[in-house]
Structure formats: C-alpha cells, structure tokens
Amino acid sequence: MINGYPTEEELHNRITRQIEWHGTTDTVSLIWHGYLAGLLEWGLIKVDIYDRLTALLPQVGNKELSELFADEPLGAEQELEIDEFMRQLPNSKR
Questions:
Q1: Which of 2, 46, 67, 92 could form a disulfide with 59 if both were Cys (CB 3.0 to 4.6 A apart)?
Q2: Rg (alpha carbons) of the chain, rounded to whole number
Q3: Residue 92 placed within a domain
Q4: Which of 38, 42, 35 shows the shortest CA–CA distance to 2?
C-alpha cells in the first residue's frame, strides 16, 4: 500500500460495515468491485489485496469487470471461460 491511501484493514472494515448495513446485495457488490478495481488499476493496492477484499463480496459483474480491465469487449471463448470459472466458485451469482 502507498502511504496516505486506505489500508487493507480499513477497506476490509468499510466493506464489512456496508454489508452489515445493506447485506450482500448486487448493488453493494458492484460498487465495491468497481472501487477496488480502480484502486488496483492505479497501483494503490496490490493484486493479492484486491483478491482478498473481493472475496468478501458476491461475485457479480465479472464479465463486465474483465472488459473494464481489458478495455475491449469479450469474445465468445472468453465469456465461456468466465462462465466455467464462475460455476466453480461457491458464492457466485451469475
């Protein structure tokens, strides 16, 4: 983490509190996935921190998130790979 930016513990606590207030809704999940993706893309958190924090959330919007990171639409084969990967996750919402 970079000094002056939220720590993993702070982000974990914020996510946990919002889940306590609203539950694991798609809206809460999508907002946090987007926020964490921005922090990751700008190098403000590391991949392992991103992975641990997103594991707290339901897995929704993964195709769109993949497109966001790639900056291009997914091909049919990529969509199938994501679908298969998501089927293997225990808390997945497709």
A1: 92
A2: 14
A3: no
A4: 42
Structure tokens at 94: 């497709």
Q: Has residue 3 been placed in a domain?
A: no
Domain range for 81 is 8-87
Number of structural domains in the chain: 1
Would you mind telling me the total number of residues written for the chain in this entry? Answer: 94
pLDDT, residue 79, reads 87
Residue 40 falls within a domain, yes or no? yes
Q: What is the pLDDT of residue 50?
A: 94
Residue 94 placed within a domain: no
Residue 4 CA to residue 60 CA, distance in Å, equals 30
Q: What is the pLDDT of residues 13-64, one digit of tens each?
A: 999 999 999 998 989 999 999 999 999 999 999 999 999 999 999 888 788 8
